[in-house]
Amino acid sequence: MVLKLLGNENLPEGGRFPSEGIENFFESSESMKRWELFRKSEIKVGLFFEKAKKATGSIVSFLEGLGKAVKMTMEMTVYIFKGGISLKDTALQMVEVGWKSFPIIMVTSFFVGMVLALQMGTATISFFNEPVYLGMIISFCLIKELGPVLTAMVVSGSIGAAITAELGTMKINDQLDALYTLGTNPIRYLVVSRFLACFFMLPLLTVIANIVGIFGGMFIANYLWDVPSNIYFSEVLDFISLLTFLHGFIKSFFFAMVIAIVACHKGFNAKNGAGGVGIATTSSVIYSMVFILISDYFLTMLLTTLNVK
Amino acid sequence: MIKVENIHKSFGFKRVLCGVNLEVYDSETLVIVGSSGMGKSVLLKTIVGLVKPDTGSVLIEDINITKCSSSDLHLARKRVGYVFQEAALFDSLSIFENVAFGLRTLTSLKEDEIKQRVRRCLEMVCLNNVESLRPSELSGGMKKRVGIARAIAYKPRYILYDEPTAGLDPVMSDIINELIMYLKKHLKVTSIIVTHDMKSAYKIADRIMMLHEGKMIFDGRPEETRQTKNEYVRQFVEGSTRGPIVADKNF
After folding, report:
1. Is the dihedral of CA B157, B162, B163, B168 positive or negative?
2. Residues A138 and A276 reside in one and the same domain
């Protein structure tokens, strides 16, 4: 009320009033203190509403994005089941996903296997005075968790980011609109092939990552801890059952869906020029990684309940 | 005939189109002029169904594209070609594949016929031996001409051009103008052209409309445009800073 009476524009920086013309109001120090209190409380309320508005806006835009992603997924599913998938485009995308990710998957999973062997060897030596169960522990960690999750992380950072950047650039340059005008639905033309490529290639890459990781572990177990290769592999094979293999394998299909859907959705909704494509790409990788880790927990819970362990 | 009835479109709090009405008759060339940011491109995109209006309807012959089935929308798209302001060529495809794209999705032509049609369309926009190149290997003007070739390749009845001569040299601009007139004369193509280029507008237009602040404020033949007393149109046509269209000068 006081602000209305006096007008905001008369307030100098720091919120202090000029003394001219308002002597009656500020004649006592008590009034001044009350005014200061009122002003501070009003600033706090204003900031609270500002923050609340921002938070509400973020929630609304997140839900809006989620709705769009679900709509896109449904539309894509309809196209997949209706047929008419371009096998040529899907094969090209599969080569793209597999070939681009293969070297980096080989290197990372080999080193993950080596690190596991190093850590487990050190740990088992401190407990049992010798490196034992290395094959079992390494294959357990790799096949059930590290193989699927790390492969998904690498694919999300390389292929997911590339998909978002490509589709985002197409969106910015009106190429998606051009597809519409030429009688082609961009979801059918661009999303279906990328989704199928991720869906079939990620589990394959996961299997390769598991095998390479186990060999990485064997390398360190053999050369550093003097565990014979046949002992190491017999431990690995004793532990691996079909259900153990399926535990990680099934997860990788879900991770592939997360990567493809998030990457395509973020690319399709890129805006504000080159900077916007950069933002979309970053957020695609972050969202994929977060969703992979969250879904990993729930999938593990579900698969364990279903005795796939 | 294309008929736009009472189109309103807002983006957030910004009202871009406020009750736009227009009719384009068969074989007519309509030029829409107006200052930048007045909603001309949004209007074109609304007509082709790329932007959904808040209210109003767009009729392409008998199809109301604001509320039609996907098969009707596909049929409407077969009838309409769209030339984008920045060409919007597909980066991952060659020039041949770009021009052939619509022929493959919207027609049932055989590969030989597609090859012939693509070559002919590229010749019409004065481009030879570029079929195997990628869009990134072409200049801005060449990309624009490929965009026009792609839009006319499947012989649509209606072609919407978003600034077709922007970025082209004067000679090439005139070639594009003559191409638009040729399409009208020989193929009876109906065109809607958004442009700032008044020289082109006078040459090719049967009718000129002016869009200002989301509303159509003028509709007349080229000679009527030259003689109009509408202050907005006169200022725009003369390219003057003096008049009701406010242009901030910061120097």
Report:
1. negative
2. yes
Of A170, A175, A183, the CB nearest to B78: A183
CA distance B76 to B47: 11
How many A/B residue pairs have CB atoms within 8 Å? 47
Same domain, A111 and A40: no
Structural domain that includes position A258: 84-305
Alpha-carbon A119 to chain mean position: 27
**Fold for the domain defined by B2-238:** Rossmann fold (3.40.50)
**A271-289 pLDDT tens trace:** 988 999 999 999 999 999 9
Domains identified in chain A, total number: 2
ipTM score assigned to the predicted complex: 0.89
Average pLDDT value over all residues in chain A:
88
Distances, alpha carbon A220 to alpha carbons A106, A117, A127, A128, B31, in Å: 16, 6, 19, 18, 75
- pLDDT, tens digit, 9 for 90 and up, residues A57-114: 788 888 988 999 999 999 999 999 988 788 899 999 999 999 889 999 999 999 999 9
Are A261 and A193 found together in one domain? Answer: yes
Chain centre distance of CA A135 = 30
User: Does any domain span residue A92?
Assistant: yes
Name the DSSP class of B67.
S
> Residues A89, A196: one domain?
yes
**What average pLDDT does this structure show over A234-253?**
92
Residue A187: which of A79, A113, A292 has the closest Cα?
A79
* Chain B positions with Cβ closer than 8 Å to A: 45, 48-50, 74, 77-78, 80-82, 84-86, 88-91, 101-102, 105-106, 150-151
Q: Does residue A20 register a pLDDT over 60?
A: no
A170 min Cα distance to partner chain B (Å): 8
β-pairing verdict for B215-220 and B207-212: antiparallel
Contact at CB, B84 and A182, closer than 8 angstroms:
no
